[in-house]
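Sequence in, structure out.
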Amino acid sequence: MGIKIKVEASAEFFLDAMLSRFGAKFPSTREFSLYARSTIEDTYPRDDPDQALMAWLDREETLFKVMEKQLVRGRLSKGFDEIEDFISFSLSV
């Protein structure tokens, strides 16, 4: 009999996989949701639908923030020539 310890990967662990899969842009909501769900193990919606839904939503939000941070950082490092470019970018995020 061993000790069972569940180790959860940090959200940044998924960044390379997301960039490889989606490139340096946001995928569609459907694509991103499916990806986020695929990163969670041991979640059984038939056994506990509320828990599964919450786990999926939490993971999607966490991964979205990681991706958003990466993409915004990249765009900010390039700078903006016009205020309109900045406003347009900020509204798109």
